[in-house]
Structures are given as C-alpha cells and as structure tokens.
Amino acid sequence: MTETTASSSGRVRTRFAPSPTGFIHLGNIRSALYPWAFARATGGDFILRIEDTDLERSTQAAVDVIIEGMKWLGLDHDEGPFYQMQRMDRYKAVLADLQAAGHVYPCYMSVAELDALREKQMAAKEKPRYDGTWRPEDGKTLPPVPAGVLPVLRFKNPQGGVVAWDDKVKGRIEIRNDELDDLVIARPDGTPTYNFCVVVDDIDMAITHVIRGDDHVNNTPRQINIFRALGKEPPVYAHLPTVLNEQGEKMSKRNGAKPVTQYRDEGYLPDAMVNYLARLGWSHGDDEIFSRAQFLEWFNLDHLGRSAAQFDEAKLRWVNAQHLKAMSDDALAALVAPQLQQRGVPEQVLADGRLVRICALFKDRCDTTVALAQWAQVFYGDVTPVEAERAQHVTEAIAPALDALADALSACEWDKASISAAFKQVLASQGLKMPQLAMPARVLTVGTAHTPSVDAVLELVGREKVVARLRNR
C-alpha cells in the first residue's frame, strides 16, 4: 500500500490498531467496537492494523487472540490485517522525504547526556524535555559531530502557536507547540518510531476517523504536526474514556483482566458482549438490551460518554441472560451441542432431538451457555444426586410413594399430561402434597430438587432412566 491509494471520496474509513504485546481484553476490544460500528453505521470501511514494532514484547499468540476475539464478536474488517513490521520500507521512504524537506534532523545527544539534562530540568522544577541542542536554525552553530555515534532522527516540531482539534468525545483541545519538544521519529538503527508509523499508516490507509483510547491524547498533537509536515490534514479524532475494572483501576492484564476469548469459553454470547460493551461509554436513551442491528442503526459519535466506564461482571451476566432467553431454541441447541460433545456426550446420542426442547425448558434459569450445557448434560449421562438434598428429601417415609410412582410411570403413556396424571394418582392414594413427592423424584432423576415443571423434566429424561432411578435409590 502506498500513499497514492488514499481515497478522497468522503467515505468513512476507521481502523483498529492494537499492539500484540498482551492478550486483548474487554477494555481493548471496546476500542475496536466503536470504529467498527461507526464504519458499519455509515456504510464505510473498517481496517485492522497490527502495530507490532515492539519486537521484544509482541507475540504471535497475542495476534491470534486479537483475530480470534474479533471474529467471535463478529467485528469483521474490510481490509487487513496489515502489519507495521512489513511496512518498514514505506516508512523509511517517507522519512527520507521528510528529511529532504528539512522537517527532520539528526541528533547525536547520548542517552547519558539526555538523562543528565532531564535531571537538571527537574531539579529546577522545569518540565523534562529535549532542549534542541542539535536542531538546525539559521545562524546557529551546531556542536561537532562525535565520532562513532549513530544519531537518532528528530522531527522539527513547529515553534509558537497551538495545535488544536475538535475531539468528538472531549470537545476542543488546544496544546501550545512550545509544550512539545522535538520527537524522536527514528532510532539509531534507522527504525521509525510509533508516532511516525501511525501517521504514515493513517495517510496510506485513508483513515477519516481515529476512534481510540484517551491514553493516546498526548500523542495526538505530535501526530497532527507530522500530518501537516507531510502536507495532509489529520483525521477526525474521538478519544474514548478508560474502562475501569470492578476495583476502579484501569482495566489491564496486570489488574486481572481476562482475554476476550475466555468469555467465549465461559458461555457468553457475542451479541450480548457487543450489547454490554456498547453501553460501556455510549448510550441510546435508557435502552439496556438491544440487538446488534439496533445498535448499528442508533450508533453515532455524538453520544459517546466523557467519563470512565466501570466493568461489572454481574451486569454482563444479566445482559447475557436476556440475550440467551431471547434466542431461538434451535440456535441455542447449536451452541450447546459442541459443549456437550466436549463433555463426552457422543454426537449420535445428541441426534435424538431432545436438546432443542431441553434448551427451551432451561434457558430462563441460565445466564450462560455453559450453565445451560451443565443442565443439559443431566439428560445424557449418569446422575449423582446432591447429597444434602438426597438426605433432606429421599427419606424412609417417602419410599412407598416413590415405589408407587415408579409403578405408575412404568405403565402410563410417556407424555407430560400422562406423567402429570400419574403423579396425581399417587398423591391421592398416598395422601401427599405435590412437593413431598416431586422433590425426591427430581433429586433421584436429575440430581437436584430445583428444576422446572417435574412432568416436563421427566418426559425429557425418558421412561427407562426415570423408573430405574426411582427404584435404585
């Protein structure tokens, strides 16, 4: 990709540009959700760019989690992934152009000299910054070039005036150029630095809107000045407030944040995650639960929040439960079936048609597909009753009624109505109330006393297993 591919059609083009130096978590992925949503809402393009120039910390495993997590959440990209390490020749060519135009100069100040300068400035209560020793100016004599020292390249930041932009989240931001020192844009080995690469990428990829975390606000004035030195206008910026964890700290791997893909493995639904993440910094009135289509219909940059959002796992589980209840039983069964196979239930056993009905019966009491799979597993394997519940409900006193129920269920038609009638017949003959018989029947047949309607549950367990479990107690 070269600069000549940049489009000026007015079409919205956004990007997500993660650094693969750690597994992507929910705070990171929200910075992908909004640019993706804005591109989709406006009929634009969404580009994925991997900023992998930190060779020591970047890993392929982290790249895989980025791509896997975005695929799971349905955040599809139109172009990319582009990798910065594969674009080094392009960066160096633009760097040479900037140097030829007088916007870049070599600086031979050593790290030790720079450290000493900063210490002196801090002792004088000044802001630590490069002092322009090697910046060429008319009439200025530069120090002699030290032998055997490879220079860094610094960008000649404009002097005087302000760099300003109208941020779509934070409003008007103005920074005095005198606050900014001359940024290192290439290391001694010639490798370009982050702020420079980002600008070249955004130009080449014709990015119109940069929607990213507010930890980048300090980079923005520097990047705007580099854009202008290259003769380009910067994109529109929207800097998103931080996502905090449940303890009120910035969400990070160090602070216990989970990789995005772990939520998939824990049974969360991608549409529920999109719904929850969308509300971490954006709102549409008081709407809490909405579909992906509604989100894209409503989304714009004008309703992004200005204050930090706090992650709340209980709220996420609630949102997931609402989406789970609203899903079709067939779609849920398709998600639960692979989980049951991982738990050792053979595929051919699952082909008996019961799973859709099991999902229908239990989805109202589950908040993840993993919880639903745990319930469903009861219907396909052996059951070990909860010991405390067995002791409480399966007593000597109820034994005759359980035998009578096993006899009645052996002989009746196997449907809900007939099972219900068998229960009523035994209750009448034994002089019992429904909970006195239903509770032990549930404990023995599915392992716990708390389930949906006992006739619906027993019908799905199957006559043979029900009768055997009632007798072999």
UniProtKB/TrEMBL annotation:
A motif ('KMSKS' region) lies at residues 250-254. ATP binds at residue 253. SUPFAM superfamilies: An anticodon-binding domain of class I aminoacyl-tRNA synthetases, Nucleotidylyl transferase. This is Glutamate--tRNA ligase. It is found in: Cytoplasm. Catalyzes the attachment of glutamate to tRNA(Glu) in a two-step reaction: glutamate is first activated by ATP to form Glu-AMP and then transferred to the acceptor end of tRNA(Glu). InterPro entries: aa-tRNA-synth_I_cd-bd, aa-tRNA-synth_I_codon-bd_sub2, aa-tRNA-synth_I_CS, aa_tRNA-synth_I_cd-bd_sf, Glu-tRNA-ligase_bac/mito, Glu/Gln-tRNA-synth, Glu/Gln-tRNA-synth_Ib_cat-dom, GluQ/Sye. A motif ('HIGH' region) lies at residues 18-28. GO terms for molecular function: ATP binding; glutamate-tRNA ligase activity; tRNA binding; zinc ion binding. Its main location: cytoplasm. Residues 12-318 form the Glutamyl/glutaminyl-tRNA synthetase class Ib catalytic domain.
